[in-house]
């Protein structure tokens, strides 16, 4: 089978993107480069002195892992050197990183929101982790960046994607014309098209939720969990419970097999745990482009007007009919 590398694919698909003159292509290339650098370290984490805690507490109130910081540095450096990005909002930085002063990127059109390392709690146990990115266009390229350009509604994303550092390393992204998956071939150091035009089944038999928080869940979610566990062969129930603790890995599995992932509000996370700008919006864009659905249980994720950079929202995401089934319990 002929190999199509990520670079070739982006150029071929250039036509889908009327007003980009190659900038978005170069931006996606820059992200691919950083992904390979992070992958190299993730693949030998036990040998590369990259396990364990960096020790600092990030804006999320989490103890930063060494790999959180390493990945954050790699992606920000790649975006800075690439010159196509003027501003990076990262999980690991309270304020965004303004690259517009950098002469190379002062006319840069794109803003990137990124979760450099998703699933940090899984690093030391060698369980799949990921990176999530979301790309917006600036409104004006000739003045200081405005907050309204950063806090754009998810529907305005021009591209979104994730890398999953798993049994193989994949980069999955959309520019609004469907979803395509690329698998890293380490022997040539290229992401190669392996999952063209990815679609999520309208229903599946997998549900993903941290049931340890059952007592803290809203009634609707408690009812849905019971629904999943009822015996009804006609709807493939009881479903199978699969929860990895890395959002990217849980959602990627459900994208491939069909299923629903839920991180609802709980009594200790009243707005949910996952962040809108660099976890929920990009994953919602990808899953919607693959034919699935993403909501808070009551509101479509991509229609939420962000108020703050690290804003958290509840999320129900995956196979369309399964998301709608969860939503029915919120009514
Ligand atoms: P991150 O490692 O980027 O902070 O994200 C971790 C998130 C997400 O990946 C995962 O779905 C969720 O945390 C798991 O949370 P619980 O451990 O509370 O289930
Ligand atoms: Mn994350
Ligand atoms: Mn993270
Ligand atoms: Mn984190």
From TrEMBL:
Gene Ontology molecular function terms on file: fructose 1,6-bisphosphate 1-phosphatase activity; magnesium ion binding
Pfam families assigned to the protein according to its UniProt record, in alphabetical order: FBPase, FBPase_C
Superkingdom per UniProt: Bacteria
Cofactor dependence: Mg(2+)
Binding site for Mg(2+) 1: 91, 115, 117
Domain Fructose-1-6-bisphosphatase class I N-terminal: 5-196
Family: Belongs to the FBPase class 1 family.
Subunit description: Homotetramer.
Protein's name in the database: Fructose-1,6-bisphosphatase class 1
High-level lineage: Bacteria, Pseudomonadati, Bacteroidota, Sphingobacteriia, Sphingobacteriales
Gene that this polypeptide is encoded by: fbp
């Amino acid at each position: 089978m002929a190999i199509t590398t990520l670079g070739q694919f982006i150029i071929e698909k250039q036509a889908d993107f009327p007003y980009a003159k190659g900038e978005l292509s170069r931006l996606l290339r820059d992200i691919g480069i950083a992904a390979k650098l992070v992958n190299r370290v993730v693949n030998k984490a036990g040998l590369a002195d990259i396990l364990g805690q960096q020790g600092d507490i990030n804006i999320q109130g989490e103890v930063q892992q060494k790999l959180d910081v390493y990945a954050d540095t790699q992606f920000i450096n790649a975006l800075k050197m690439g010159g196509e990005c003027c501003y990076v909002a990262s999980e690991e930085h309270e304020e965004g990183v303004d690259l517009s002063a950098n002469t190379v990127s002062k006319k840069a059109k794109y803003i990137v929101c990124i979760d450099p390392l998703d699933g940090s709690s899984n690093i030391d146990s060698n369980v799949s982790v990921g990176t999530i990115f979301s790309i917006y266009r600036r409104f004006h390229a000739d003045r200081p960046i405005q907050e309204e350009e950063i806090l754009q509604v998810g529907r305005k994303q021009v591209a979104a994607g994730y890398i999953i550092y798993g049994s193989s390393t994949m980069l999955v992204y959309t520019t609004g014309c469907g979803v395509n998956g690329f698998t890293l071939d380490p022997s040539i150091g290229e992401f190669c098209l392996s999952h063209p035009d990815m679609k999520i089944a309208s229903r599946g038999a997998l549900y993903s939720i941290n049931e340890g928080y059952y007592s803290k869940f809203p009634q609707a979610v408690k009812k849905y969990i019971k629904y999943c566990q009822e015996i009804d062969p006609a709807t493939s129930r009881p479903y199978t419970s699969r929860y990895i603790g890395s959002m990217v890995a849980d959602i990627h599995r459900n994208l491939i097999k069909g299923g629903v992932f839920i991180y609802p509000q709980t009594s200790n996370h009243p707005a949910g745990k996952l962040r809108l700008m660099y976890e929920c919006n990009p994953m919602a864009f990808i899953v919607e482009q693959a034919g699935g659905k993403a909501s808070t249980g009551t509101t479509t994720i991509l229609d939420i007007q962000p108020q703050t950079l690290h804003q958290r929202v509840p999320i129900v995401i995956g196979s369309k009919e399964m998301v709608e089934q969860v939503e029915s319990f919120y009514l």
